[in-house]
Design a protein that fits this description.
The protein is globular and about 55 Å long. It has helices at 7-10, 14-32, 38-68, 89-103, 122-148, 157-177, 185-190, 196-202, 209-217, 220-236, 241-251. It is built from 11 helices and no strands. Helices cover 63% and strands 0% of the residues. The longest helix has 31 residues, at 38-68. The chain is mainly alpha-helical. The protein has one domain. Helix 2 (14-32) runs antiparallel to helix 3 (38-68). Its cofactor is Zn(2+).
Length: 265
């Protein structure tokens, strides 16, 4: 038995369009220097773009699940890109934004509920889990393209720094989400290939995987090693460490500014 997906189930939500509009306004303000405090413009632009990427991350999960056999996706509203339709609004939007504010860390949370029993085949289950972080990879490529294509002539420094910081968030999101930790997408990729016994033993830890990763990253040695890796990856993509650092510095406009970050010219 199949269920047709109504056109309204696929229509892009006004909530998502509103977030895109706010993001565009923040980007315009960062580019033109419209805001008295450039950090405010960077905050609006990066936060908006980060939420947009969260929506696209979850949409990728949902869309892949739909084509893999879960026809319940449409009725749940996941195809509308409306973040208010997600299963856990706290995990999906609030916590990821707090992670960015607290530590410049891109870490999407679990959001869409997929009826796995409707889906046949381990490869399909793995692909559904991989679709989200692969979206972050694509987003990172888009954000870094102006850097590795040397296409930044005439781009204001404030916007350049903001784009560099946004790229850092996407790279961290992709890398962390691919970790094989219960509750993260990386574990979802390998879970279908594990024995039933192992899956049952791991299942109780899934709700705590996200917080466990965040907690481990608070260990100074781990944090330094992790961000050294991120800086190396960004360097390969044409972004200098000071650019993403200055972007984060501008984003946290309420904190003391670092005089080493030039924003004029």
């Amino acid at each position: 038995m199949t269920t047709a997906i109504r056109r309204s189930d696929r229509r892009i939500s006004p909530v998502f369009l509103g977030i895109v509009a706010v993001t565009a306004a923040g980007g315009w303000a960062a580019w033109t220097g419209f805001a008295d405090n450039p950090g405010v413009a960077v905050f609006v632009f990066v936060t908006g773009a980060w939420i947009v990427s969260l929506c696209l991350h979850e949409y990728a999960h949902a869309r892949t699940a739909l084509h893999s056999g879960d026809i319940s996706i449409g009725a749940k509203g996941y195809l509308t890109l409306n973040p208010l339709k997600y299963t856990h609004a706290l995990l999906s939007i609030v916590l990821p934004v707090l992670f960015v504010i607290m530590g410049g860390l891109g870490l999407p949370g679990g959001a869409v509920f997929i009826e796995r029993g409707r889906i046949q085949g381990r490869w399909k289950h793995s692909l559904i889990s991989a679709a989200g972080p692969l979206t972050n990879v694509l987003f990172a490529i888009v954000c870094t393209a102006p850097f590795w294509l040397d296409a930044l002539d005439g781009v204001p420094l404030v916007f350049r720094y903001a784009l560099a910081f946004l790229a850092l968030l996407q790279v961290t999101a992709a890398l962390l989400n691919f970790l094989p930790v219960p509750g993260l997408d990386g574990y979802g990729v390998i879970e279908p290939w594990l024995s039933y016994k192992i899956r049952r033993q791991v299942e109780p830890f899934a709700p705590f995987g996200l917080l466990a990763v965040f907690g481990v990253l608070w260990i100074p040695e781990v944090n330094v090693a992790f961000f050294d890796l991120i800086d190396s990856l960004l360097g390969v993509l044409g972004i200098e460490e000071f650019e993403s650092y200055c972007g984060q510095n501008l984003y946290r406009f309420w904190a003391e500014e670092n005089p080493g970050c030039q924003i004029g010219g």
